[in-house]
Structure formats: C-alpha cells, structure tokens
Specification:
The chain is an alpha/beta fold. The protein has one domain: Metallo-beta-lactamase, Chain A, CATH 3.60.15. It has six helices and 14 strands. A seven-stranded mixed β-sheet has the order 6-5-4-3-2-1-14. A seven-stranded mixed β-sheet has the order 7-8-9-10-11-12-13, with helices on one face. A hairpin with a 2-residue loop joins strand 7 and strand 8. Helix 5 runs parallel beside helix 6. The chain is globular and about 55 Å long. The structure holds zinc ion.
Length: 283
C-alpha cells in the first residue's frame, strides 16, 4: 500500500507562510492498493487538490471508481467533498463507508453541509457521480479492492471517531485520527486494533501541555501517540492532524520531542514521520 497525504491539519485550514512545509489543508489521505486502486480516507480540504490530480485520469472521463472511508463528520473531515470535481462527473462511482448505523444518518450528515444556508449546491442529489453509502458500526469488517478493512470507534470529545485498520498482502496500515483517550489510555480492544501495525497514523494535535488545557476537545498529544505506538508494538508512527495554530517550527519541535519519548518508552526501533502535504510513504 502507498499512503499519500493531501491534508494533515486539524480542525480548520491554516494556510500561510508559517505552515508551508507541513501544509494548511485539513485531513485527507489516500491509500493506493497493490493493483493501484484508490481508497480515500477523510474528506477535509486536502480533497480539493486530490480531485485536481485525478481529473487527467479515468475520473476525468467518468470512468473512475474509489472507496471513501470517513472517520467522523466534523467539518475538517467533510469540507473537501463539495469541492472534489470527480463527484460531478456522471459515470464515476464512489462507495462511502462512514460512521452510523444507517444510510439515512450518513446521508443526513452529507446533506447537512449542502443545505442552501451553507452551500450553493443544495443537495448531494445534484452530483453526477454514483455515490453509495455504507454505514460502519463499531467493529465492522469489510473488503474494498482486496484490502481487508475494519473500523473501531475511538472516543473523540463528545462524539466518536472511527479508527480504520487496512490489511493487504500481510501488511497493515492503521488510521487513528481525532482520538482523546481517557486517563487510563487506549482500551485493550483498540490496542489490539493497532497491534503490530506496519504503519500507525495517529492523532498528534497537541503538545501534552496544550492537550491538558483543552482536554474536553478529545484530541491526542504526541505523548499519547508515542505511548500508543509502543504499547501496540507498531513499526512506524506517523504524526497527523496538527493544531491550526502550530507553525512548521512547532511541528518540528513536536517531532523531536515525540522521538525522544519513543526512545524513552522502549520504542527505539519505531520509525517516526511527521505527515506533510505531498508526502507519499510505502507501507
Ligand atoms: Zn479533525
């Protein structure tokens, strides 16, 4: 699997000279399977550039097909959807796997942001592409393009966020953004979900100091991410979803402190990469 980053920021886009290196767009990641099929994870503002990159491919001619995994429906995970050109082209097919127990709930979430008060697009029924909604209840497993996917709900403030584990040809990638564990840390169930991951992408919104001051928002610090990676025996930790007020220099410092924490916790063999827009990593 090849993992590419189109948006790595949390909560709200943060463009500008101080965030140029890591990027200002909100959460959007793609996974290319061994057969080069496309799985999109989350639909933040990074999805706009992804759409542009797909237009010269079969998606520009209405012959594209992709799966979308949606962790939860906060703005920074859905706002790119109405600005993703392939959804307007008849013939394209998307299957969106997201939170909830019913298609109606998922449809309501997506329709909500296209309400005329918020958007000129009025309704997802105006889109040309075929969009199939598939709810993912806690613990649900399914297969997309030969990749085994399982979704498990993590606590995220007053709501929940799905962590997805993807497995193909014996390799594993876990996407665990937007998670605020209780004081006791991640549950045994969620640690088993992350266990031995070749790559664990984990929420790294805050420093431990800022997390302590904003605990109710339901995010992780780099310390939480390092502890989860060591406890789950992950092989590679990817930092993700940086606070909108963190400059590139602050993220550099978080990376250094996270590296030191991994080493201190016994995770010297765990590779560490801070996600950045435009970066592609091989799982
Ligand atoms: Zn978020």
């Amino acid at each position: 699997m090849k993992v590419s980053f189109w948006g790595v920021r949390g909560s709200i886009p943060a463009p500008g000279p101080e965030t140029n290196r890591y990027g200002g767009n909100t959460s959007c990641v793609t996974v290319r399977t061994a057969a080069d099929d496309l799985i999109i994870i989350d639909m933040g503002t990074g999805m706009r550039a992804l759409g542009g990159a797909l237009m010269p491919t079969p998606f520009g001619k209405g012959a594209g097909s992709a799966a979308i995994l949606l962790s939860h429906a906060h703005w920074d995970h859905i706002q790119g959807f109405p600005f993703f050109p392939p959804i307007f082209i008849p013939g394209n097919k998307f299957t969106l796997h997201g939170p909830g127990h019913s298609n109606e709930m998922l449809e309501g979430i997506l329709e909500g942001q296209m309400n005329p008060h918020f958007s000129p697009m009025h309704t997802i029924k105006n889109l040309g592409a075929q969009i199939t909604l598939m709810p993912v209840p806690h613990g649900h497993s399914f297969e997309v393009f030969g990749v085994r996917v399982r979704g498990l709900s993590n606590p995220h403030g007053s709501t929940e966020s799905l962590a997805f584990r993807l497995e193909e040809n014996g390799r594993s990638f876990v996407y665990a953004s937007d998670v605020g564990y209780p004081a006791s840390g991640p549950s045994d169930e969620i640690l088993a979900h992350y266990a031995g991951a070749d790559m664990l992408l984990h929420d790294c919104t805050y420093s431990p100091e800022d997390r302590a001051a904003r605990i109710e928002r339901g995010f992780s610090s780099w310390q939480d991410a390092a502890e989860a990676a060591v406890r789950a025996k992950a092989k590679h930790l990817v930092m993700f979803h940086y606070d909108q007020d963190y400059t590139d220099e602050i993220v550099d410092a978080m990376r250094d402190r996270c590296r030191a924490a991994l080493d201190e916790l016994g995770g010297q063999d765990i590779a560490l990469t801070p996600a950045a827009e435009g970066l592609t990593l091989e799982v």
